[in-house]
Amino acid sequence: MSFLTINSIYHTYFTQETATTALKDISLNIEKGEFISFLGPSGCGKTTLLSIIAGLFPATSGSIQLEGKPLKADQDTSIGYMLQQDYLFPWKTIEENVTLGLKLQNIKDTDGKALKLLKDVDLVGVEKQFPKQLSGGMRQRAALARTLAVNPKILLLDEPFSALDYQTKLKLEDLVFETLKSFGKTALLVTHDIGEAIAMSDRIYLFSANPGQIYRIFDIPAELRALRPFNARNHPLYPSLFQTIWKELESLEH
Ligand SMILES: Nc1ncnc2c1ncn2[C@@H]1O[C@H](COP(=O)(O)OP(=O)(O)OP(=O)(O)O)[C@@H](O)[C@H]1O
């Protein structure tokens, strides 16, 4: 039994005039603590799949199990979601934003979890500040702390680094990777950045579009995984894997 099992998910969006099959027969198994990336051309259904896993809407058909039980992401806190935009509440301080999920569940932060998490994401000293006083990278770190505060089993990361400048992005990849590993979290990352996917993942699923399907699976070699994330880019295997995925992706975009 896998930690997360996705069984033959199909999803069609219906409008009055059209029916768009966004996902066709998506099946995959993910083990606890794995870091998985979804890559693919625009419109191949990556966000649709994350949204279904997050419980934002049901799939047209198929099923998802977490630890052998049907996943009801909309009814518990098994799933944490981090997006390109941080969606912090501007009128709340960073500390209040981080504890919000706990408050919504009537859990008192008696053991100072928020402050510990802010330390984990290197944000000590800005607890009482408001989001607009922080840089984009700092706000994403606060968003990570907020996501982790409710102790989700799986983190869904939908292009969380793509709005950041290159240096901040590399630093945040490093911090997110190390933080998630230290908490033993399982992560699913949607990205358009091949390098980011190679540098962070155990496995990459490359999707094709119209309809969205799994086209190839790349297992990242152990030598690269051992150096994740930053130094994986310096391993001699990195450029050839990058080239292979680049060519596959290009062939899907034409
Ligand atoms: N609410 C919706 N109504 C109708 N069609 C939709 C809707 N959302 C997405 N689609 C269609 O479903 C398909 C998959 O979209 P989705 O956003 O999941 O792809 P994606 O791989 O995340 O794309 P991108 O990489 O551009 O973010 C696309 O053809 C898209 O136009």
Automatic annotation (TrEMBL):
Alphabetized UniProt keyword annotations: ATP-binding, Nucleotide-binding, Transport
Keyword match Ribonucleoprotein: no
SMART domains: AAA
InterPro entries: AAA+_ATPase, ABC_transporter-like_ATP-bd, ABC_transporter-like_CS, ABC_transporter_ATP-bind, P-loop_NTPase
Start and end residues of each ABC transporter domain: 4-234
GO molecular function, one term: ATP binding
Listed name of the protein: ABC transporter ATP-binding protein
Naturally occurring in which organism (per UniProt): Peribacillus asahii
